[in-house]
TrEMBL record:
Key words, A-Z: Signal, Sugar transport, Transport
Compartments in which it is found: Cell envelope
Protein name per the record: Galactose/methyl galactoside ABC transport system protein
GO CC aspect terms: outer membrane-bounded periplasmic space
Taxonomic source organism: uncultured bacterium contig00076
GO molecular function, one term: carbohydrate binding
Main location: other
Amino acid sequence: MKAKHFYGVAVFVLVLFTALALTACPPPDNGPGDPLSTTYRWLDGNGNQYELLITQGNLPPRTSEVRAGKYRLTITLTGGDILISEGTASSGSGNNIVFTPNNQEGTPMTFTITIVISGTGDIESITATDEIKNIPFVDDSGNPVADTSALEPAATLIVVNIKAIAGVTVPAAGKTPATAITETAQYTGIVTWNDSPSIFAAGTEYTATIVLTAKDGFTFNSLEANYFTVAGATTVTSPAGNDTIITVIAKFPATVQMIKVDVFWYSYADYFLDTIRNAMETQCESLPQLSVTHHDAYNDQATQIMQIQEAIDGGSQLLIVNMVNPWANDGEYAQTVVGMAKEADIPVIFFNREISNAIIQSYAEACFIGNDAKEAGYRQGEAIANFLLKQENWIDNRSKYDLDNNNQIKYIMFKGIGDEANWRTLYSVQEANRILTASGKSLRLVPSSANDIDDATDGHGDYDNDGISRYFLFTDWDVDTAKSLMSTALGTYSLDNGDIELIISNFDGAALGVIEVMNGQGFNTEDDPSKYIPVFGIDVTDPAKHAIDSDTMTASVYIAPQSFADTILALAQNVANGENVFANTGSYNVDAGVKKLRVRYSIYPDSF
């Protein structure tokens, strides 16, 4: 942008804001020039906003801007003998702005500013006159500029729309105050605190003064008052925006005592646990009583035991543990952790990987947060039944999914290993058929001949002879294995004639792998929705969510990471408040006779 300069008069700063409705007028005969000394904002007849920003003050020079639509002109005022103490502004004819200030004796003076805008929004001329001076606009080198029609357009300013100011420390006893916000793509900010503490004291109310500066291309202009939010603050105030700098005041409640919390993860590489950790970190921004440190064991149990001991030695007041291997040697490592916590008189919350009842019951300040693995199967079965039953007219729509019109939906089950896989395999089909039966429909799920039949001697589970979970393709939780099994099945069985009418998978990875194989035969693509086999998974990974949103996968079930994180932190707050770690759990799904809490599964999408 080319800067233009203007020379005039100054003694002190006065900024007045005026909104005036203007209409177009022919360009005036007089040329551009003359000093300006106030601030104007107005709208033209088409609703376009224009600004004339003039700041007058003591020497050295003051810089101001003229903005008209997409154009901006910078003006510098120096020297002179005018003292402006107050004044009024009104619209003149056409685009004329008439400002009448008072000089130091109170005698009115008149400045007339004319900005002529063409029908295309371009500036045709800018003219300023006054009763005292007649000094023209000049360029960067001080050369007079007679024609302002070639003013370069400034970039269109985007109004800031990031409401939540992140990175402002929620005051808690012992915490260090932040001095800057978390920078966004739209603005930066500095933070100052009342009494300028180096660390926050207990029982004290603090106020943060946050000065935000818009980045190039952004403005706070037109933001409503009190637009911003700050996590943990009781009140957040800010003026209506009118510039590229704005001050936000955030007041916080009296500080509470902070406790040191250490969270131990078997591996940061686990996708599901990574989403829980991210949710916890976000939630902790508004929990000042918790100072949380996370530890990655890199899937090594010895490393995790060492990390826990170091945390205890470092003064940890709460251990939250996702064990690497809680099952080895009848729970030897989990019992070791309980012993360490008990000796140090520190509560311990185990989560995600199941800990035996006996180990949890061995210490009054131990508990477990997990899920009911059987529920994943039940919820998946519910999703399958709901999908089939929500067809408005099953008789008319049956041929879309019951390809051979025999009231039997033939499924392939892609199975993992272990009890969790056994339960998912059994209860998904069992629950779907229970709901279908209760609906009065004759429709049922039956295993496709494309499944293998477990002979009850291969060690894949305890439910081989129940008539349901004997039928599956064994993936061992491996995506490539699932893809290979599906490719082999399609060498014998068809997707077109009713051999395979529905896919059920113990996990999303296998479901997506199977979809990829079916894509090769033109099924479950975004291009042809008529060739579609319903596919159901478990976990709601990001790729699965995308596939569901794209209508290439049907549904999945999962424990919402936010729900898991909220539950863990609710128990952590019990400890911070001086209560038993398992207090206030009456509204949760709790096992009988043992401190184990179950987070519920959800179905994605919500329409199920």
